[in-house]
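REQUEST ID: PR-0412
SUBMITTED BY: lab tech R.K.
PRIORITY: routine
TASK: structure prediction, single protein chain
INPUT:
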Amino acid sequence: MEWKRQSVHMAAGLLIVLLRFLPYWLLLCVCLGGLLFNLFFLPRLIPSIMRGISGDRRGVVFYPIAITVLVLLFPHHPHIIAGAWAILSFGDGMATLVGKLGRPMPLRWNPAKTSQGTIACFIASGLAAMFLFFSSSRILWMTGNAGWRLSGWRLPWLPGWNPSRCRSMTT
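STATUS: complete
OUTPUT:
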């Protein structure tokens, strides 16, 4: 059932779109909500995604904590949050899925990991991060462009952005 666990892992990466629409404080609330959801509800809703017989919950706890740390460290740089989040969700997810395919070629320094998974991680995370980082002004965030302009937000990826007229994301 590793594919199910990794699907949930990558599906959480789709929440990257929220970076475009939510203010800083609400994004922190979503991160806290994700942590509480992963701690108390996710194991009950989909018990098969917990690792091992013991139902190890470390991964489902550290995932939203990592996103929260990103939001706290880079409140004025949602494109950096998006890129790092993409690496975490899509890179790690694809590494596990591809690493389980075919005849595994274990890494010398860590036999639990495979060279196929490592290569898949680099390719998937690189593509996802580049897409989110470079397309933030044109493709992915285009749907919210008008909404941000109407709300008074002027962000670096929008044409005509001027930092002296920009409201702080911390307010």
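NOTES: Residues 2-165 form one domain.
REVIEWED BY: pending
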